[in-house]
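Project standup — Tuesday

K.O.: blocked on the structure for the chain from last sprint. Re-posting the sequence here as requested.
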Amino acid sequence: MRIKVVIKIIGFLLMVFSLTMLPPMLVAQVYDEQTSMPFSTAFLVIFLIGLVLWLPLHNCQDELRLRDGFMVVTLFWIVLGTSGALPFMLAEQPHMRFTDAVFESISGLTTTGATVLTGLDHLPHAILFYRQQLQWLGGMGIIVLAVAISPMLRVGGMQLYRAETPGPIKDTKLTPRIAETAKALWSIYVGLTLLCALAYWSAGMTAFDAIGHSFSTISTGGYSTHDASIAWFHSRSIELIAILFMALSAINFSLHFLALKWRTLKPYLKDSEVRAFMTIIAIIGLFVMAHLWLKGTDKAVHENAIESLFQVVSFITTTGFVSAPYYQWPSFVPVMLVFVGFVGGCGGSTAGGLKVVRVMLIYKQGVREIRRLIHPSASLPVKIGNRPQDPRVIDAVWGFFALYIVSFVLMMLMMMEAGLDEVSAFSGVAACMNNLGPALGEVASNFAATGDPVKWVACFAMLLGRLEVFTLLVLFAPDYWRT
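H.V.: unblocked you, prediction finished:
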């Protein structure tokens, strides 16, 4: 491993991240709040640490390899989660312990949306804005942002891009140069954020709430500026806007790029993953609506329909917004919503979960094995969109799924050992590993009452899910360190 170039990049990215402390400082000034000190202190500390790491090695010209990219991305998310906790620890309200502050920071950056904070309605605007901003930066990945704005790194950007970008197929570039690809992705990301903010504002949100919720909607993060989440606004219009932009953010961003480039909706209509994604939403949404109606809820049919669709879209996109007390819904519906979160959004989106394309491949591989029992000599390729898939991709998906299940079980057992009951431990790991946020049982609303061991396991689960398992676990392989 080229340790010098790794340290150089970590230092540079820390200096970039320190600049994110400036917008909350501006918000504090706008609202005349005496809350800028934690952010100014954090800015100086993070910038100086980055400068100390980068300056002695800024002339290092070593070529970055793929294995170095894994180390850079993993280290940076760990360092970022720790340094991002500084404002929470330095602020007077809320004044958070180290564990709680790191949990909140990592949850924001990984777009999980789980929280240990309560009383959001009474927190300073600067702190609330900072939480939302963390999710927005983590949504597309600050590594991709750095690749977009910093050719000065003089190292292979593709290695960072491949290690950071979510999804099972990571070698597709939208443009010939990887920096241009990252810029294109961020341009679409920013554009969707602006449209979402304007839509929220026009529907009745204040400018502050509209900007904050657009950050967490487009990043599929789920943080809110209110304890009651989207339910606080009591607006079906806002819920419908959220449904639209959550779904758009959970679709592969390369399709947005192609749709804008060709000025047509054909990229969406022809994509089999998008069709499967929308089909799942429609089927589960109708099922939840029918179940609530049959169980005799006292709401009108159209209100049940909107609430059902909202929660299904919120869970499958792993956003985690709440428009109703879903955990009080009858029968198995809350558990089914948690399982929907396992599916997640499309590959190449900001959503978490397994990703729809992986679920499709696993299902089609299972169907092929059944057909092989009937026709042992037949050639039966696995196809996505009428295109046969490389066996290596299928092997990688099964490897991912196996590691995912093993990791999930181990972390669930660790949470149970730390004091959670079975339902809380299962849903807690599901909420964190899928970067979902909402859970059931003791952690249905937040993780505030859980012990520190549970929170550290949750932090690891959030990082594991955000980095798509392989990127993090590859560092534990002996072969990684042998050359």
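K.O.: great, moving the ticket to review. The chain has a mean pLDDT of 88. Residues 53 and 320 are 37 Å apart (CA to CA).
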